[in-house]
Amino acid sequence: MGILEVQNVNKSFGGLKALQNVNLSIEAGTIHAIIGPNGAGKSTLLNCFVGKLTPDTGTVMFDGQSLLGVKPHEINQMGVSRVFQTPEIFSDLNVFENVLIPCFAKRDGAFQMNALKSVMSEAEVRDRAEQMLVEVNMIDKRDMIASSMSRGDKRRLEMAMCMSQDPKLLLLDEPTAGMARADTNNTIDLLAEIQDRRKITMAVIEHDMHVVFSLAQQISVLAQGTVIVEDLPENIKSNPKVQEAYLGGAHE
Amino acid sequence: MKSLNSSDKRTLLFVIVISLLAPFLLNPFPTGSGMAQFNAGYPDLMQRFAYFGILAIGFNILFGLTGYLSFGHAAFLGVGSYATVWMFKLLSYNIVPGIILAVIMAGLFSLLIGFISLRRSGIYFSILTLAFAQMSFALAYSVLTPLTNGETGLQVYNDDPQILMGENAITSPHLFGLKMQDTFTLDLGPWAFQFNVGYYVCALFLILAFYLSVRIFRSPFGLMLRAIKTNQTRLNYTGINSRPYTLAAFVISGMYAGLAGGLMASMDPLAGAERMQWTASGEIVLMTILGGAGTLIGPVLGAGFIKYFENIFSKINETVLHGWFAWMPDGLEDAVVWVLHLFTGKGWHLTLGLLFMLIVIFLPGGLMEGADRITDWWKRKRGKDVSDTSKTPAE
């Protein structure tokens, strides 16, 4: 039984069947890539994991609990963090404050009326945030306003924000989209490093085959709303179904 | 106090000093001089600075931190005023029960309006709050006349119960015997400085309100409010439920408005429905933006700025202008006065509008951005001098 179990999920938008009978199981402690051509339903599937969309039918179970109808912040509190296609960070705040927020969320839950406490006196949370910044090599940027950083640094910061919550499952939606090769490689290294150190389960949606094959331990191929193949990376390239649906019949 | 950093402490100290010394600072011109009309150091105006300052500080906790632009804050001000006058009518002229009730009523009222309005964000939220405020205004003006005395405005009458009033009790608002209208005048040469009890009561509340707002700004709660302003999506995916945060901010700022309304009624025991009208709500928005939304002290400055112009510029009528330009040849004098009278006296709104436009265009961060630029420029200038001198001995 995987940490995330998706069974018979269907989702339509009007007449368009975005997901049809999707079955997926993500094993704890692995990096699981979900790939597929444009419009295959990858992002729809991801949105079903985080509470942004609710499947029409089927079940999504995380750690033995159903995620259907649960709000995004509640799903996060259960241990699911998400990295977005374009880094979603608190642009107007500085790097340190960006990491402080998830640390507070981890400790205090979804709401805490602590209007008369001071952030300055919360040593425990501040230490945790600082440690996280050291871990992702951003401690020298702690006072920078987040919006003034490069795309790669924003991604790194977003990752740090997610990691500081110690998630059980990290969802990544095209983490290297629009990045230069150097930034892409940095991101791959960062993810591999995190996985190595913390053994966090990750589900990665990705277009870039270089990223997929450098990271994934298991790959699901999605085409036209269904999972057509689920296999180890070394078997995926040679699978005729994948070649037909995804690589257009020819090897890349 | 340990929880504030040194710059916050300096700001707080600045507010305390300014508030306490206001009767001196706002009265720079000798009484008999021609400039005396620019003095703002008289009780009525100083009181207004203080309670509108409180109003703007509270509004800034909502708008400055979370970015939710409420266009209905005057409703809470009105509720506060009515509550206080009712306490005068029912109990006695002591302002304490009135102010407490004003804060509580405004809090409950903002809880209701906030709960509904905060289902939406952005322009829809603004419109909802505006609609609620206009509804409150209309209700206070007509249907709720038994409660608000409609058009006439709520005031204290001789046959009101006032159950806590003794035989020789004071017949104007007071704080345990200290009458709000009492003023001590200090004559110092040609100057006359006025120290008014009511002003100092307002000033103490202003200092307290400011201190609380600094604490909120620097708290984890304040951090979450700022996070709401910059990226609510990320906040939700970080396990934070933003609704209770925005609602709490809304209620806190509503209570600030209630306090301001209570003080307003305590200085002058009268409450009218026009206090709740949308123009009054708009004025609060202007104050905050003009001073610098999201800064600690900006809204207070904005409130002072607008109230100063409202009271001083509006007094400069054509007669005053003719007095100033009497030295000019007749035709020219008339021309100059004709142009200037559009901007002063009744036309002061035009000046305010122009100033507002200039500030929003050139200093989007409000007066505080102007102050920051001046300090930066000053520091750079001094920094250059320092580096120049440090070079010479090294050689």
Descriptive report:
The complex is a heterodimer of chains A (252) and B (395). Chain A has 252 residues and is α/β, with parallel strands linked by helices. In chain A, 36% of the residues lie in helices and 24% in strands. Chain A folds into two domains: 4-79 and 167-245, P-loop containing nucleotide triphosphate hydrolases (Rossmann fold); 88-149, no CATH class. In chain A, the strands form two sheets. Chain A has a six-stranded mixed beta sheet, with helices on both faces. In chain A, strands 2-1-4-5 form a four-stranded antiparallel beta sheet, covered by helices on one side. Chain B is mainly alpha-helical. In chain B, 67% of the residues lie in helices and 5% in strands. Chain B has 16 helices and six strands. Chain B has helices spanning 6-25, 43-66, 73-90, 95-117, 122-141, 145-148, 197-217, 220-230, 232-236, 242-267, 278-291, 298-312, 318-324, 330-341, 348-362, 367-394, and strands at residues 154-155, 174-175, 178-179, 183-188, 191-196, 270-271. In chain B, strands 1-6 form a two-stranded antiparallel sheet. In chain B, a hairpin with a 2-residue loop joins strand 4 and strand 5 (191-196). In chain B, 45% of the residues are buried. Residues 388-395 of chain B have low confidence and may be disordered. Classes of the chains: A alpha/beta (252), B mainly alpha (395). The A-B interface holds A 50, 71-74, 76-77, 81-82, 88-93, 97, 100-102, 104-106, 108-122, 125, 161, 165 and B 2-5, 215-216, 218-224, 226-227, 229-231, 233-242, 244-245, 248, 252.
State Rg of chain A: 19 Å
Q: How much of the polypeptide of chain A forms β-strand, as a percent range?
A: 15-25%
- Number of individual domains of chain A: 2
- Figure out the total of helices of chain B: 16
What structural class results from the helix and strand content of chain A? alpha/beta
CATH H-level homologous superfamily name of the largest domain in chain A? P-loop containing nucleotide triphosphate hydrolases
* CATH topological fold name of chain B: ABC transporter involved in vitamin B12 uptake, BtuC
CATH top level assignment of the largest domain in chain A: Alpha Beta
Q: Might you state the CATH topology name of the largest domain in chain A? A: Rossmann fold
pLDDT averaged over residues of chain A = 89
Basic shape of chain B: globular
Q: Write down the secondary-structure element order of chain B.
A: HHHHHHEEEEEHHHHEHHHHHH
Span of the ends, CA to CA of chain A: 34 Å
Low-confidence segments of chain B, given as residue ranges, are 388-395
In terms of per-residue confidence, which ranges of chain A show pLDDT below 50 for 5 or more consecutive residues?
none
Q: What is the CATH class designation of chain B?
A: Mainly Alpha
Number of DSSP-assigned strands of chain A = 10
